[in-house]
Every structure is written in C-alpha cells, then in structure tokens.
Amino acid sequence: MRILVLGSGAREHAIITSLRSEGEAHEIFAAPGNAGIAQDVTVVALDANDPVAVASFAQTESIGLVVIGPEAPLVAGVADALRERGIPTFGPGKAAAQLEGSKAFAKRIMTAAGVPTGRATHAATLDEVAAALDEFGAPHVVKADGLAAGKGVIVTDDREAALEHAAEYLGTGGVLVEEFLSGSEVSLFFLSDGDTVRALSPAQDFKRLRDGDEGPNTGGMGAYSPLPWLDEGWGGEAAFVEQVTREVAEPVIRQLDAEGTPFIGLLYAGLILTDSGVRVIEFNARFGDPETQVVLPRLVEPLSRLLLAAASGNLEDVAQPTFHDTAAVTVVLASEGYPAAPQVGRPITGTDAAASVAGVHLAHAATAAGPEGLVATGGRVLNVVAIGDDFGQARSRAYESLSKITLEGGQFRSDIAARVS
Length: 421
Hints:
Helices cover about 30% and strands about 30% of the residues. By secondary structure, the protein is of the alpha+beta class. The chain is globular.
C-alpha cells in the first residue's frame, strides 16, 4: 500500500517502524515527520492540521490508507475531509474525536454508556472550581477541558496550586475538577471500525517528570509492556482485557454510534485499578505516546492489515491481535527545562552508538537535521525502545543505549519498569 502517516513525534515514528517491519512493499509518507522519520521514509512538508491540504495530497498521491497520529488533526476534522473523498482513514471524525477534545464530552458519554469513572464537575469560573475542590477534597485533580498536549492535568494537595492551574485554562473552555482515584494506572488501546472492537496489549506509562513519580505532569517519560502484575487479582492479561473491553470499550463505541458519531480509529482508555474495580481516568482518540512505542514492537499481526480493516469497516473479519512473549521498555530523553520551558536547538550526539545496542531502536520525537548533525526541537526529544527476553534484559539494554547519547541538560527517569524487573 501507499500509506500516509500524519504527525511528527515518537508515536508516529513507532507506527512507521511497525509498518516497515512487515516485509511488505509499502510506500510510506510522513507529514511533517522529523529527522529520525526522514531517515526511514519520505517526509512531506504538509500541514497535518489542514483538512483540505491533507485530503488533496492523499487523493493526488493515490494514498490507500491514512493513519492520523496526533489529536490536533482529528479535532480539526482531517479524517472527515479524507472520508468525504473515499480515502480509508484510521482516526475518528471531528465529532467523535471530542472524546479527547473535550473532557466534559467524554464524561457525558461515559455516564450515558454506564462506564465506571470518577465523579467530576465542569467549572467555568474560579468560584465554581473552588467549590468543587472543597466538595471532593484533597488530593485535588484539575483537568483542562480541551487539548493540552498531555500537560493540562494537575494532581496536588495544594489548593492554591490547583486554583492557579484552573485559572490558566478557564479561558479556553473551562476545566474539570475530579475526585482523586488511587491505584495502579493502565493504558489499554482498542481498534474500532465504529462497531467492532479489538484490544491490543496493555501498557503502563510514567507521567511525572522525575523518579518516584515526583515533579510535574508531562506527556509521558517512559512506558513498559506487558503488565505481569495483572496476574494478581485480575487472573492475567487476557481476563483483564476481556473485562475492560466488555465494560468500557464496547459500551462507549455503541453509545457514540447511537448518537450518530461512529468512532473509527484508536480508542485509548486511561484506566486506574482501584479497590472498587476498574475506573476510567480519561479517553484519548489516538495511539498513546509513549505506550505505542512498547506495544507495537510486540504485535504479531501486520499493523497495516489491522488499521486498514478498521478504516474500511471490516474489523469483524480480523481475529483478536496477538503479541510476542517479550518485554518492551521505552525511556524518554527530554530537554532541559521540560515541560515548562524546554531548551531547544542543542546538538544530540551518540545516536548511532545507542541504536547499535542489541534489541534497541530509537523513536525520534523532536529532532531536526542541523548543519553539524541532529538538534533537539522540543521537550521530549527521543525514545530509546528496548526489547528483551525479560524486563531485566530490556531495562539494561534501554539504559545502556541511553548512556551513549549526549544532550546538554538532557533529563530522563532512571526507574522506568523497575517495578517488574
């Protein structure tokens, strides 16, 4: 196939890496891509958030499948424009993408579908925020209602800090104040063609900047998959996935379909395993980052066939995906100052040596080709992705690889997947 992948981050690089691993003669384009992606496929100077530009390019180039990576093009209606021209597209339309674009919309859908989640109040003023904070008590959870690149959430015992965070986002659509839920977090991806649902393997990511889950929330500092501790209390991964599919994914997909907004693409369920059972923290309308980097390398079936089946409405003809019995770990290298004020333009060296470590590949997130080599262009710069026979081997490979990369002021967590090693 001729495939177009929209996006410029490590998630998109991971998708492209998986597509290229199939051994089939795909011709892959990425828009706009990054320096690492440009080493693997053809990059196109295209505004991924422009529905007309993307649809025109896909039609002119006879693209057989478009995979939309980030959330912004989805909320901008890029998938709608593509489908209007009959181009198979993996990614929900603008209306269904509100599942991620609006936390309030997602809460309403969950309530209508009977999906277990925490209590929440939508607030449009600081007085309403303050009242909700006092109702739910500490720790305080405040979320921007709209898109915030994974950084619109604060969890804090400091009431004033919660109010300050709310004030930052009140002018852009309000905020949600939620009750705090305690437990282990799990990310679980579901492919959907608007009717049928197929689950992938679960992963766990690390949102806090520093070791021990300290520091501010980020877009994600690392992840691992699978989750062997699901054997305890859940009867194993298969039983857990079956339960969440039945109680969360299928009801949500049915509800969206009933409202005339079928969800075609990747439903990301951010879950927390409380003493009272599974609860949904959030939904995203696309592959998670950095979880995609550890889920896709373990996938047995060709990714392109799964995505095309979902995009074409034929997912019922595809069996539940299976995964290799290997361990995958990814560690994010971030710029100095991330997430508040990342320093950009600094050189990156040692990537060739890092990629030469056995079982390791790099997924570029924010890199560009400078006159003297790679430079960092954003907060999360690249991911070291390591596969191993077990988590001890995978972690060892990941951190050995990371030690070979130099980025002035670069920061990373040293405890990714330590729990399972």
